[in-house]
Design goal:
This is GMP reductase. The chain is built from 12 helices and 15 strands. With 363 residues, it is α/β, with parallel strands linked by helices. An 8-stranded parallel β-barrel has the order 4-5-6-7-8-9-10-11, surrounded by 6 helices. The structure holds guanosine-5'-monophosphate (5GP).
């Protein structure tokens, strides 16, 4: 350190004689707000353009597409999902449990989808080794997603630096964090896109297990502001339960919104199909749930700060129907605030704090 202290001594100084702090500024979730409509000249939602073009800060790579991303969970970030979403210009973060052989098979059949997928990895040598091999073998892949339980560790920052050095022109996604200062640190370490969200996920139990987290709307507002100040980008990851939440994520400044649960339960999703009383369900689970751990023996125990849940969601057929519904919802949000392009949505968004957002009288 600057004062000739060891790391341990510096940490000691930081914490000596300190009291716990309390931030009394309210922090909000998607459910706590609505978007206020605004006067507009738009005639129809069909006029709204949901594609965006970004040039990323560190890789200097330019990408055009619809910035909705399938999560790198083995029930969601499948090759089948990538084919369905990629054909509509959406992105899929492929989960990290496919083998190199699986990637070869996929790439040989669907080379056109490669530009819209990310290869995912934690910080283990096994993960990074496989990701590197995949990136070298298939240069059409532009994104690499470095995903750890706790994006706040120095070890993770070092990993981001190493990946940036090894892959100077790939788009590096890194997370997860929920505060501006760590967003900045990861961008300065070489990440292009910061993944935001600790604990909002539908099958996540981190908040229950650890007491750690941050309401997602406020996290996105803070991190997006920090990232944009450095020409970086953010993904709002987790906590969306309906198309309106996806729109709120974009309204709060997210460049991309990542979905797990909303994309579960489809033909293209992973997980077992279950039949109960003549009704079909699909299994969905967190990447650190015991289901995931049993499946990927030994490999994923530290993926997230705590366990995730296993649930069953009603089977919903092809994901294209759900995607249409989500995109239709966001287009409609844009028309309500007079944004002719998704790019303008956050500039035209005023959130209002509400105590009730939905009338529940009929269920
Ligand atoms: P959802 O869209 O389902 O609300 O959230 C998806 C996100 O939840 C994922 O992208 C990932 O960040 C997070 N997630 C997935 N599995 C787990 C888990 O087992 N534990 C925790 N804490 N988070 C998880």
């Amino acid at each position: 350190g600057g004062r000739g202290l060891t790391k341990e001594q510096e940490l000691d100084c930081e914490t000596k004689n300190k009291m716990p702090r309390l931030d009394l500024e309210p922090k909000l979730d998607y459910k706590d707000v609505l978007i206020r409509p605004k006067r507009s000249t738009l005639r129809s939602r069909a006029q709204v353009d949901l594609t965006r073009t970004f040039t990323f800060r560190n890789s200097q790579r330019t990408w055009t597409g619809v910035p909705i991303v399938a999560a790198n969970m083995d029930t969601v970030g499948t090759f089948e999902m990538a084919v369905a979403l990629g054909s509509q210009q959406l992105v899929t973060c492929i989960h990290k449990h496919y083998t190199f052989q699986d990637w070869e098979n996929f790439a040989s059949k669907h080379s056109e989808i490669l530009p819209s997928v990310a290869v995912s990895a934690g910080t283990s040598q096994t993960d990074l080794g496989l990701a590197t091999r995949v990136l070298h073998a298939f240069p059409a892949i532009q994104f690499v997603c470095l995903d750890v339980a706790n994006g706040y560790s120095e070890h993770f920052v070092e990993a981001v630096k190493a990946v940036r050095k090894a892959h100077p022109t790939h788009v590096v996604i890194a997370g997860n964090v929920v505060t501006g200062e760590m967003t900045e640190e990861l961008i300065l370490a070489g990440a292009d896109i910061i993944k935001v969200g600790i604990g909002p996920g539908s099958v996540c139990t981190t908040r229950r297990q650890t007491g750690v987290g941050y309401p997602q709307l406020s996290a996105v507002l803070d991190c997006a502001d920090a990232a944009h100040g450095l020409n970086g980008h953010v993904i709002a990851d987790g906590g969306c339960v309906c198309p309106g939440d996806v729109a709120k994520g974009f309204g709060a400044g997210a460049d991309f919104v990542m979905l797990g649960g909303m994309l579960a339960g489809h033909d293209e999703s992973g997980g077992e199909t279950i039949e109960e009383n003549g009704k079909l369900f699909k299994q969905f689970y967190g990447m650190s749930s015991s289901t995931a751990m049993t499946k990927h023996v030994g490999g994923v125990a530290e993926y997230r700060a705590s366990e995730g849940k296993t649930v069953k969601v009603p089977f919903r057929g092809a994901v294209s129907g759900t995607v249409k519904e989500i995109m239709g919802g966001i287009r409609s949000t844009c028309t309500y605030v007079g944004a002719s392009r998704l790019k303008e949505l956050s500039k035209r968004t005023t959130f209002i704090r509400v105590t009730q957002q939905i009338n529940e009288v009929f269920g």
